[in-house]
Amino acid sequence: MTSVLDAAVGELNLELPDGKRLVNAPQASLYGGDAGLDSLELMRFLILVEQKVSQALGIAVSLADERALTRTESPYTNLKSLAGYLVELIEEARGS
Cα–Cα distance between 30 and 80 in angstroms, integer? Predict the structure, then answer.
């Protein structure tokens, strides 16, 4: 999942001004707290990740679903939490 997230971070950063760019590190905040992304930027990032997963694996996932929004710990906290949630969704889609 690292390559998918790396590609999405890189693409999003091309669209963002210098002060808003996402740090590509596991503990980098995505949204909430001291995160740099606003809600629209977060949605754009999630769409990029979904597209990268589809291109790389041929699997359709939805990162902005009700399950993600109702979790005790948000999968949008940082890149590590998003990667964990993404692995869950991919395993489910594969029937693992």
Answer: 10
